[in-house]
Design goal:
Blueprint lengths: L9 E2 H11 L6 E5 L7 E2 L3 E2 L9 E2 L3 E4 L9 E8 L13 E5 L11 E4 L3 E4 L2 E4 L9 E2 L10 E3 L9 H7 L4 E5 L3 E7 L3 E2 L10 E2 L2 H11 L3 E8 L3 H14 L2 E5 L10 H8 E11 L3 E7 L2 E6 L3 H19 L10 E6 L10 E10 L5 E5 L9 H5 L2 E5 L11 E6 L6
Parallel strand pairs: 1-20, 7-8, 15-18, 15-19, 16-17, 19-22, 20-24, 23-25
Antiparallel strand pairs: 2-14, 3-14, 4-13, 5-12, 6-8, 6-9, 7-11, 10-11, 20-21, 21-22, 23-27, 24-25, 24-26, 26-27
Helix pairs in contact: 1-6, 3-6, 4-5
């Protein structure tokens, strides 16, 4: 048994369940302009104030007709034209038709549109090569959205798919829930800022860059407090600032049991923390609790572990805090392993993988190589996690495995 295979570790599913059982959504609302709503969570159902389209219009370039006029003839005379934004508003007699463009309002009395490719034109005399059924090539009032329909439900996050929909309804402002504010920092005397030379035993602080990128993708406002050295006084001050200015405090490093890991002692002073050792690889040392009035998530210091725990455990927590009731966990599929995956029973293993569709249309997945918790290059090449069950052992090529596709926050 290795050092990371300690019995009695909390299963990943149990840890996430405990987190979500405690967190409740923020309830403060604000009204913002539609162009600023991208990524925000809708506070109340949005109902359509209009029908879309607001008038019956043509789905084709062609000729608007009364189908009754074509029962005994195939030829009509041109009475006028209807363009998008410039509808025909004159009178037209039996035996006549109207030239019409796509999106243009249907003339009063017209009940079909014959596309121009199905006609022969001789001046103002139009011969029709087909006899259409009623309503052919006509978009009726409310064909897309009807007045008072719920178009975006409460708890939905606004994406590029919702923006044009809301704009098409003339909605200029929307009511949204406030975004969670997350303060974060890295801990450790070994960490150096980018742009400075490294001395013996030092490494660059990479975690904050991945943490910030994911938090912003999760739809949070962020407060970056930088690198905090292994000093009880500086850590104490950083935790106080973070927990009084943000809804959530996220740290990376300092949640294990090393002699210089002061985080646990300080959190015991200022908060209520259940330090978990999760049956998760990578990412066993993960802490969750409260500090002052903020939630606390302590991520491991190794870069892959920090990213993985933030993605798997903190992402759904922040979605609930944000009131994002339409949040869906990343999609999982069954795939055929095309390479061997090393694994020991005892923890759920999230290995980095590259999935593809083979010539037979089957989903298959290969390892990215080095699966060490400090080997971030393998994350760069991955497009999924290979989720290997807690009690599963080594996986041979050809076996079925579960893969979890990266969601939009990883891109």
């Amino acid at each position: 048994m290795g050092c990371c295979d300690t019995p009695g570790l909390m299963p990943v599913e149990t840890a996430l369940e405990k987190i979500l059982d405690q967190v409740t959504a923020l309830e403060t609302k604000s009204t913002i302009a539609l162009p600023d709503a991208m990524g925000h969570v809708i506070a109340d159902d949005i109902r359509s104030p209009i029908n879309v389209p607001p008038f019956a219009n043509s789905a084709m370039d062609g000729y608007a007709v009364r189908t009754a006029d074509l029962v005994d003839t195939d030829t009509l005379t041109l009475a006028g034209k209807s363009f998008a934004g410039i509808p025909f508003d004159g009178e037209w007699q039996a035996g006549q038709c109207i030239r019409i463009m796509t999106g243009a309002q249907m003339p009063e009395g017209a009940d079909a549109v014959i596309m121009q490719e199905e006609t022969e034109v001789d001046g103002d005399t139009i011969r029709f090569l087909i006899k259409p059924p009623a309503n052919d090539n006509v978009r009726p009032i409310g064909d897309d959205v009807r007045l008072n329909d719920v178009v975006v439900a409460k708890g939905s996050r606004v994406t590029a798919r919702e923006m044009p929909l809301l704009a098409s309804l003339g909605i200029a402002t929307v009511s949204v829930l406030v975004r969670p504010k997350v303060a974060f920092f890295s801990t450790g005397d070994e960490l150096r800022p980018l742009g400075e030379p490294l001395e013996a035993g030092q490494i660059y602080d990479s975690n904050r860059y991945g943490i910030r990128a994911l938090l912003e993708k999760f739809g949070c406002d962020v407060l970056d407090l930088g690198i905090i050295p292994d000093s009880p006084e500086q850590l104490r001050a950083a935790f106080h600032k973070a927990s009084t200015e943000a809804d959530v405090v996220v740290t990376s490093g300092g949640v294990s049991v090393g002699e210089a890991d002061y985080t646990k002692d300080i959190l015991d002073e200022q908060g209520e923390i259940g330090f978990w050792k999760i049956a998760m690889k990578p990412g066993k040392p993960f802490a969750f609790g409260t500090i002052n009035n903020a939630w606390f998530c302590g991520l491991p210091g190794n870069p892959v572990s920090a990213m993985l725990t933030l993605y798997q455990l903190v992402q759904p927590m922040l979605a609930k805090l944000a009131g994002h009731t339409q949040y869906q966990a990343p999609q999982r599929l069954t795939a055929k392993a095309s390479t061997m995956f090393k694994k020991r029973p005892g923890r759920t293993d999230f290995q980095r993988g590259i999935y593809s569709i083979n010539a037979s249309g089957q989903v298959e997945v290969a390892t990215t190589g080095n699966q060490g918790s400090g080997a971030f290059n393998s994350m760069h090449h991955a497009n999924c996690f290979v989720v290997l069950e807690q009690e599963r052992g080594r996986v041979q090529a050809g076996e079925d495995v579960t893969i979890e596709l990266f969601n939009h926050t990883m891109y």
